[in-house]
Amino acid sequence: FRPGCLAGLSVLVSAGPTREAIDPVRFLSNRSSGKMGYAVARAAAAAGARVTLVSGPTALSPPAVAEFVAVESAADMYQAVMARAASHDIYIGTAAVADYAPEYAAAGKIKKTAGELTLTLRKTRDILAAVAALPDKPYTVGFAAETDDLEGYARAKLAAKNLDMVAANWVGEGKAFEQDDNALEVFWPGGRRTLPTASKAVLAGRLIDLIAERYGARAAV
Ligand code: PMT
Asked: Quick check: is 30 catalytic?
């Protein structure tokens, strides 16, 4: 990417999975390793931005960024992101935030007595949509992880959540989640670009380049 393309700007990145407690020892989560989000945070810092990384639990070492905030649940991530979003120029939502969480976490470990156990899940708050709805919203980049109709769902997210850009990736067996390589189809109002398969480090650099280009184009309007 172009060195210094984000100099003077601040970038807030979310990364990794969230964990939604069922009881003190169990949780619901997903396969996000944090690799994509950490690569995006590193690339933004290398491009000259002041970077804040809000991360769910991962096995990775935190990258050298201005602020690293470790969170656990979707609700924690919502608080951490919303407390900081308006003071950043760009928000990149790479995290795989749980869409549903148990309506409550049992205070004690659930015992193995009943033959069947029903968990009631409730929708979590959408962090990306909340950031994009801020009156002084940062340039807001969402991710879209899809197993079908990548473009259709990605464009629907762009419009429904009032985003500035969506980076969409195919997910499923051996794709995106946990992998070292990835590919992105990036959409913004009136445009698109294919970022072909590369290591997440290289791909993150290309995405940061594109964000800098589109951010500059928006600022120039
Ligand atoms: O971490 P890795 O193993 O490297 O894998 C990378 C990745 C596949 C997780 C990443 O590239 C990716 O696609 N991240 C988004 C995963 C996701 O949850 O996608 P989604 O289509 O369900 O969500 C769309 C967007 O809404 C995302 O920007 C997500 O951060 C955001 N969201 C979702 C739910 C919610 N409650 N709040 C949100 O902000």
From this structure: yes
Q: What is the pLDDT of residues 173-216, one digit of tens each?
A: 899 999 999 999 999 999 999 999 999 999 999 999 999 999 98
**What would the two tokens of residue 176 be?**
């995106």
Report the CATH number that the domain containing residue 79 is assigned in CATH.
3.40.50.10300
Residues 145-171 pLDDT 10s: 999 999 999 999 999 999 999 999 999
Q: Which amino acid belongs to residue 183?
A: A
Q: Which helix (H) or strand (E) holds 138?
A: none
Q: Is residue 116 part of a domain?
A: no
Is 41 within the bounds of a domain? yes
Question: How far does residue 31's CA lie from ligand 1's centre (Å)?
Answer: 11
Count of domains for the chain: 1
Residue 189: inside a domain = yes
List 30, 162, 169, 182, catalytic entry: 30
State the pLDDT confidence band at 2, using cuts at 50, 70 and 90. confident
Q: What range defines the domain where residue 156 resides?
A: 10-99+121-220
**How far is Cα of residue 53 from the mean position of the Cα atoms in its chain?**
10
Ligand 1 pocket test: which of 32, 162, 165, 175 has the largest number of ligand atoms within 8 Å of its C-beta? 32
Distances (CA, A) of 74 to 35, 82, 83, 120, 192: 18, 12, 14, 16, 29
Binding residues for CTP: 99, 109, 143, 157, 161
Atom nearest to 169 CA in ligand 1: 13
